[in-house]
Amino acid sequence: MAGLDIKLKxxxxxxxxxxxxxxxxxxGNTIVEFQSSLDDIQKTGISKLVLDFSEVxxxxxxxxxxxxxxxxxxxxxxxxxxxxNVPAKVKIVIDMLGLNAFLKMCPNLESALEAxxxxxxxxxxxxxxxxxAPVSTRGxxxxxxxxxxxxxxxxxxxxxxxxxxxxxxMPPSVGSGLATTCRSCSLEMEIPxxxxxxxxxxxxLITYAPNGEISFKSPEGxxxxxxxxxxxxxxxxxxRHFINGFSRRLGLxxxxxxxxDQMIIEISEILRQHVYEGKEDxxxxxxxxxxxxxLKIRISDYGKTISPNLKGSLFRKTQQIMPEFExxxxxxxGNIINLARPK
Length: 343
Known about the structure:
single chain; 3 domains; 7-stranded mixed beta sheet; 5-stranded antiparallel beta sheet
C-alpha cells in the first residue's frame, strides 16, 4: 500500500513561498495526512505554494478535489498553488476532467512561481447577471522559462532562480483566458480558452463563448462524464488511471476493476490498429454513466467501420467484463460501442 511522503522547503528570496516535495500517492489512505499538512503549511504564513509532483504515483478523485480546494484557499490568502513536474498519467487525468483550468501545471520552479504571481495579482471582479456575465480576459506572459531552481540539500531551502529577462504582458484578448466565479458555489477559477467546462466543486457546466460571454447551468441529478480522447498510448494510460479510480469509488470489486482495465487496453488497441490503422491521433468520444443501477459506457469514433465478422474475436475481454455489448456502425462513419454491466 503506497503512502505519502511530504517535505516542505522554504524558497529563498521569495516572500511567503514554499516548495513541497511529494512522494507516493494522494488517495483515500493518505488524503487526511495530505490535507493536514497543507493546513499546517498555511498556518505558517506561506501563501505561495509549489507542489513538486515528480514522485507522485497516483492521485484519486478526492485528491484532485483537495488540490482545487487548496488552490482556492491559498489564492484567497493572497497567493496560490501551482504544480510542477506532473507525471504524464496524472496530467492527462487533470486535462481530461477539465481541471487544467483551475490547477496550474508548470515544468519548473520559476514558471510555477510566475503562474502563482499571475493568480495572486489583483483582478477586477467579473460582472455577473442572472443569465450571462461578460467578463474581462487576462493576458499571458511570453518568453522562455529558465531551468529548474537548484535545491540546497544541506539547508532544506529551495533557491529561487535568477531573474529572467523582462517579459511583456500581452494585451487582453478573447481566448487568452478569463477569471470568473462559479455562480453555484462561488469557486474562483481561471478558464484558459473558449469551451465548455465543469466546476470541480459543484459540477456546474460553465460555457465560455468566443465573444467573451460566460454562462452557467446547474446540473440536474448525477451527470454522465464525457471526454474526447486520442489513440496514443499516453492517453490510454491516463484513461486507465482515471477508470481505475472511478470504478473503485463506485465500490466495484477488484476483479471487475481489473477487468475494466483490461477492457480499456483492448478497446484502445482496437481503435488504434483497426479503426485508425495505426494512427495515434485518431479521436474518439467516451461517455460514462453511473447514475442508475448500471455502469454504462459509450464509445464513438469516426474511423474505419469494424467488420461484423471480427467483433467476436476483437472484443473478447470486453464482452467478458461487460455483459451488455453492442458495436454498430456510426451513422456518420465509424463505430458506436455501447457497454453496460450491473454496478
